[in-house]
Specification:
binds 5'-O-[(R)-(carboxyoxy)(hydroxy)phosphoryl]adenosine; binds zinc ion; Nucleotidyltransferase, domain 5; 10 strands; globular; about 40% helix; alpha/beta; five-stranded mixed sheet; single chain; about 375 residues
């Protein structure tokens, strides 16, 4: 529909420079430039390297997205950007770019939450989110169960990891196995040829007195690392496929069990899974199986929309426009620890009052 808001979204919270363009809940472009190869030799994302890569990739990626979508910047109804959480320096590159474009073009600016964006992206694949929706958000930095009755304004955390994020555990175990970075996709691949029951690894926080919706992956990580060390110390080969499958099973067993439990307890009949780890094939399969058994409808975006991208930020921006949410001020800043409950960063006053600089000065 032509009257749905046309929004460009910018994502730079970690190592992907993402620029997406959507019209309402329709995806028009999803351009991503990744600096992951530059971080691989360090075994993790190096913030300074990420920031510089964002700076270099920003303008070309915006131009590519506009070209892919077949629209011009003038057509846009708004520009949204990840304001947090994420790496401070990396976020700042996206926020600065979004401000410059929005100001120069005279378009409203929306600083939005990265985690809410990971949930909202599913609208591009499966249409408007049911309200309420239970969301299992699993990425390199977060593992949370969130209940949302309106993705632009109400996200309530039910539980979260008390130590490592799920993706972090994948990355660390991959490092112990010398599989490179990021670890999730490689472990996913090896696990397909391994036996998930070969080794019994611990399921964190699943005891009767443990918090129902919190996660812990640090004990699992240590247990897998010790098991591998013991094999090596005994001079035996490490069965990479079986270790991958058994470790992965321990993670996704706990994630799906707690997510289904939360849906049942809260009387919610839709579960959404988002974030980079939602790309995991076994997590998707087991969640499908357990949701079907519990009468819960499962929504998981395709893998490319699960990992960090600009389309998810545009999707949430479009929803902000559609629901008449207040745009951010021109003094919007990046907040590396933006709480999950703050779906966006609304301006303290209306846009029009903040114009001090002349628009002509900005781009000359
Ligand atoms: O959402 P994301 O792209 O960035 C963050 O916001 O953190 O998530 C990245 C994380 C990494 O830890 C990566 O190993 C993990 O998602 N990941 C996966 C898979 N693909 C990416 N984990 C398990 N299985 C996968 N197929
Ligand atoms: Zn993410």
């Amino acid at each position: 529909m032509a009257d749905e808001p046309l929004v460009l979204g910018i994502e730079t919270s970690c190592d992907e420079t993402g620029v997406g363009i959507v019209r309402g809940t329709t995806l028009l472009a999803d351009a991503v430039a990744s600096s992951v190869d530059e971080h691989a030799r360090f075994g993790g994302v190096v913030p300074e390297v990420a920031s510089r890569a964002h700076l270099e990739a920003m303008v070309p990626t915006i131009q590519r997205a506009l070209k892919d979508a077949g629209v011009t910047a003038k057509d846009l109804d708004g520009i949204s950007v990840t304001a947090g959480p994420g790496l401070a320096g990396a976020l700042l590159v996206g926020v600065s770019a979004a401000k410059a474009y929005a100001y120069a073009l005279g378009k409203p600016l929306y600083g939005v939450n990265h985690l809410a964006s990971h949930i909202c992206v599913d609208q591009l694949e499966h249409g408007p989110l049911p309200e309420p929706t239970m969301a299992l958000l699993v990425s390199g930095g977060h593992s949370s169960l969130l209940l949302s009755s309106d993705i632009t304004a109400d996200v309530r955390p039910l539980g979260a990891t008390i130590d490592d994020a799920a993706g972090e555990a994948f990355d660390k175990i991959a490092r112990v196995l010398n599989l490179g970075f990021p670890g999730g996709p490689v472990i996913d691949r090896y696990a397909k040829e391994g036996d998930p029951d070969a080794i019994t690894f611990p399921r964190g926080l699943t005891g009767p007195r443990d918090p129902a919706y919190d996660f812990s992956f640090s004990g699992l990580k240590t247990s897998v690392a010790r098991w591998i060390e013991a094999k090596r110390a005994a001079g035996e080969d490490v069965p990479v496929r079986d270790v991958s499958a058994s470790f992965q099973e321990a993670v996704v067993d706990v994630l799906t069990r707690k997510a289904v439990r939360a849906c049942k307890d809260e009387g919610v009949d839709h579960l959404m899974i988002g974030g980079g780890v939602a790309a995991n094939s076994r997590l998707r399969a087991l969640a499908q199986e357990r949701c079907e058994r519990a009468g819960i409808r499962l929504r998981v975006p395709r893998p490319k929309l699960c990992t960090d991208n600009g389309a998810m930020v545009a999707a949430l921006g479009a929803e902000m426009v559609a629901r008449n949410r207040r745009p951010s001020s021109w003094d919007l800043s990046a907040d590396s620890s933006l709480p999950v409950t703050e779906t966006h960063v609304p301006g303290h006053h209306h846009h029009d009052h903040v114009h001090e600089v002349s628009k002509d000065n900005l781009y000359s």
